[in-house]
Amino acid sequence: MLVVATGVFEILHPGHIQYLEAAKRLGDSLTVIVARDITAVARKRRPVISEDQRLHMVSSLKPVDEAILGDLKDFFSTIVKIRPDILAIGPDQDFDDDEVQRKLDELGLPTKVKRIVDYWDSGLHSSKIIVDLIKKQ
Amino acid sequence: MLVVATGVFEILHPGHIQYLEAAKRLGDSLTVIVARDITAVARKRRPVISEDQRLHMVSSLKPVDEAILGDLKDFFSTIVKIRPDILAIGPDQDFDDDEVQRKLDELGLPTKVKRIVDYWDSGLHSSKIIVDLIKKQ
């Protein structure tokens, strides 16, 4: 069972680790698609850490079997290439699960969307951590 | 050859990974001493991320064979217990290498201090990254 997880992973915090550990537990092998700089810009803002460094950082995590950079234009083209059994979406990731599932079905993929909820209660996500760090400056 | 590295590791950035990879290359096994919350307070400020979560995060890195929490009072008491061959100090860590070496010698330890300089040119360290993130808010 191949699982795919995805994200920008600008800085790593415990919520990221928990997300990737939970994703790994859904199958045998975990591939992480790290968002390109240009994709991150389109979705949020330009990362401080370059895509190559973010890729290296995610690759260095024990639950991660493989990390790759995403496609420059179309997220789903990478999914079509990999054909994972499961696409694990993080607790605070801004995707419509049903819409993603419909798109995967339309593409004739066997991939099932699973929303990871394991760490949601801890309230740990990048924006909160960054805000807390700012307050302490 | 047992290597020890140390730090607060509040958030992980590529500089941390490079430090720990470089430390691991100095020997066969890498143990990381993660600073207790109370030690971080004394040296810098109270971490946003608790010591247990920071420990878990550092443990999840591929170059790390073992991660442990530091002593509540005395950094060197942990070193005495572990008796590493090498104590790898990060590029931006505020230690006087000669002073640390003298202290290790006085304690009768075989440990040699090595300053990691591999990533210094990239200018990657927590404070700079946090400042850059703040500017982008």
In terms of topology, how is this protein built?
2 copies of one chain form a homodimer.
Chain A: E1 2-7, H1 14-25, E2 29-34, H2 37-43, H3 51-59, E3 66-69, H4 75-82, E4 86-89, H5 97-106, E5 112-115, H6 126-136
Parallel strand pairs in A: 1-2, 1-4, 2-3, 4-5
Describe this structure in words.
The structure is a homodimer of 137-residue chains. The first copy, chain A, has 137 residues and is an alpha/beta fold. Helix content of chain A is 42%, strand content 18%. Chain A binds chain B through residues 10-14, 17, 21, 45-46, 48-49, 53-54, 56-57, 60-63, 124, 129-130, 132-134, 136-137, and chain B through 10-14, 17, 21, 45-46, 48-49, 53-54, 56-57, 60-63, 124, 129-130, 132-134, 136-137.
Summarize this, please?
Chain A has 137 residues and is α/β, with parallel strands linked by helices. Chain A is built from 6 helices and 5 strands.
Number of strands of chain A: 5
The chain pair forming the largest interface, with residue counts per chain, is:
A-B, 27 and 27 residues
Q: SSE order of chain A, as H and E?
A: EHEHHEHEHEH
Q: Which structural class best describes the helix and strand composition of chain A?
A: alpha/beta
Chain oligomer state: homodimer
Principal-axis shape of chain A equals globular
Tell me what portion of residues of chain A adopts beta-strand conformation.
Answer: 15-25%
* Mean pLDDT across residues of chain A: 87
> Major sheet of chain A: size, sense and barrel closure?
5 strands, parallel
- What is the terminal-to-terminal distance of chain A? 45 Å
In spatial order, strands of the major sheet of chain A run 3-2-1-4-5
Number of helices of chain A: 6
Please estimate the helix content of chain A.
40-55%
Poorly predicted ranges of chain A:
none
**What is Rg of chain A?**
15 Å
